[in-house]
């Protein structure tokens, strides 16, 4: 699939899944060659603004690196092309929740808003795990301005490159126990999911159901993913 075809995805189905579950699975967005090319960038420290060793901060076991601007072409294009349909969904979420926040139709305009808020650092990142690695449940918030949705692209092939290492989402429910989802995705596939919460219809209108995401422990091998976050960081 070409990134230009993102507009031709079944966005009604994607939006329905986001409302119902807080995430939606996407078909293969990246070819095997695209995935290999992205993984090959990981040792090139000059492309990244920051490297985080998860264990140091008790985030998990593994490491990740935030790209610096200018982003690699494929990352820049994926981020820019996936943003507009997600902004439409995000605005419907804000309306349902009675929130006056609205997101511009294009990523350049949203990036300008981030910069005006003092959030100027790039947030797309590559994540790397080896056997035993995992990522604790968390949310990716880097300032006052946060886009409600984000994207993860899987760059490694399960069973061939690694085992275990499922993508996890856990939703907190009022007056009930949390519910979890474990997603097993093929190389090149992607998942769009909520940054913080999804709107849920209750007896008195919509409320926010808080959702965190993470990665279960790898049983063997190595796993790489590309994270696309649309708001920048301070």
The fraction of residues assigned to DSSP E strands is 35-45%
Which range best describes the helical content: under 10%, 10-25%, 25-40%, 40-55%, 55-70% or over 70%? 10-25%
Instruction: State the total count of DSSP E strands.
Output: 14
Structure annotation, total helices = 5
Give a structural overview.
The chain is α+β, with helices and mostly antiparallel strands and 234 residues long. The chain has one domain (3-228): Jelly Rolls (Sandwich), CATH 2.60.120.620. 25% of the residues lie in helices and 36% in strands. The protein has helices spanning 11-21, 32-40, 54-57, 73-96, 107-116, and strands spanning 23-26, 48-53, 60-61, 63-67, 125-130, 134-138, 149-154, 162-164, 167-173, 176-183, 190-194, 197-202, 205-215, 218-228. Strands 1, 2, 4, 5, 7, 8, 11 and 14 form an 8-stranded antiparallel β-sheet that branches. Strands 3, 6, 9, 10, 12 and 13 form a 6-stranded antiparallel β-sheet that branches. Strand 9 and strand 10 form a beta hairpin. It is globular, with a radius of gyration of 17 Å. The two termini are 34 Å apart.
Q: Would you spell out the secondary-structure blueprint of this structure?
A:
Layout lengths: L10 H11 L1 E4 L5 H9 L7 E6 H4 L2 E2 L1 E5 L5 H24 L10 H10 L8 E6 L3 E5 L10 E6 L7 E3 L2 E7 L2 E8 L6 E5 L2 E6 L2 E11 L2 E11 L6
Antiparallel strand pairs: 1-11, 2-4, 3-6, 4-5, 5-14, 6-13, 7-11, 7-14, 8-14, 9-10, 9-13, 12-13
